[in-house]
Amino acid sequence: MSVSVNIDDILAEQTEGRPFVFVIMAYKKQWELFRQIERVVDTEFKLPCLRADHCKSSGEDLRNKIHALIDRAEAVVAEISTRSENVFYEVGYAVATGRTPLLLVEKAQARKVPTDLLGLEKIEYTLDQHGSEALEKELASDLGPKLRSGIELMRRMLLGKRADSNYILASPRYPDPGSCIWGRDYDTRTFGDYQAILRLISAFSPMLGTGRNVELISARHIPPDTLKRPWNLYLVGSGNVNPLADDLLKMLQDGAEHVWSFAPMPGYTYGDENWPSGLFAWTRQGAKYWGAKRWADDGACASEADMKEKPRVWKDDYGLIVRGPHPRHADEGRIVMLLAGSHALGTGATGVAATDPQRIKEVRGILPPGTLEDPQSRFWVLVKGVASDDCRLDPRNVSIVDAGLIGQPLPDPPSR
Fold first, then answer.
1. Tens-digit pLDDT profile for residues 20-32
2. What's the rounded Cα separation, in Å, for the pair 38 and 152?
3. Global pTM?
4. Shared-domain flag, residues 293 and 144
5. For the chain, what is the radius of gyration of the CA atoms?
6. 20 to 30 A Cα–Cα from 271, which one of 20, 46, 215, 224?
7. Quick check: is 2 in a domain?
């Protein structure tokens, strides 16, 4: 599903990276009502509001962008007094994708609400002064649980009992023939490990405040006593780019019969230069390889026709999230988390999965009850990322494959 104008650019411009509320309405009308909704969301929750005309486009392109805006919204509000086919289509899409909207309808039109929508949460309002004041109070009350739930899910996934001193350790490789950014094709968009880093930093802002209690440091230049320090650690990338990753993964899985590991892909050894990483599930019966899949065309996304070597460009890839108590500071409420993929595509996918409330909710549903809320629990999440036609990761193409407690039997890889 291609979109000519990058939705991430639109959201960055309109929201400054913050969570947002999307308002569905017949936007050629009701401008003052939108301003009222916008004022409540800003005053009560310090979040921005968007509606369809913030996304300039038309036809098929507009529909795809509205889908993306609904998918990424923290909450959706829909004004349904005006019987607009576009409005009802967008409400239907929101409901179908689990982004159930809060409905607004004028009291005079309340009896005309379609039967299929009667079970949804609804606020009836009037346009007089008393009605406007009542609407603002109800909006603040009813939106509160919807907005706080997303941030609360991120807190449960990402934060320990101590939420200060959060350190992101990352050291992405410079693009080489093993990536899709090569030759004279300059890098103009966030890619791979950087996407995971960006997602983490963006998630910390609404939880802790912009620029507070989070540090980004090089994984290759960390203090030798890093594990002795009372920090919450977030490692981005597997051991071939993040030297602490393998040690931390072993510590978290210490004593487990079934373990995850990153090692050279089949056909490569640690002695090979720039060996490509692979994700393995180990049991007593041996290793099970969760392999990345290349594009059918080896020259996909390559900018030079006369390349001596075709780049290894991955069509899909797996990534692993592992979270557990800090090996040395668990009693102080500290946690550690690994976000790593076989390749940059998989690492980027872990960043999406670990910070998106809808995917976190899915993970919580797979894990035993209470696991996510317990900072002493040790668990893993297996994710999959699929590249778009430009060989980049579209967040919509990230899926949760499975999740479980460390030590439990691991899933079998699919046949290719």
1. 899 999 866 677 8
2. 22
3. 0.71
4. no
5. 23
6. 224
7. no
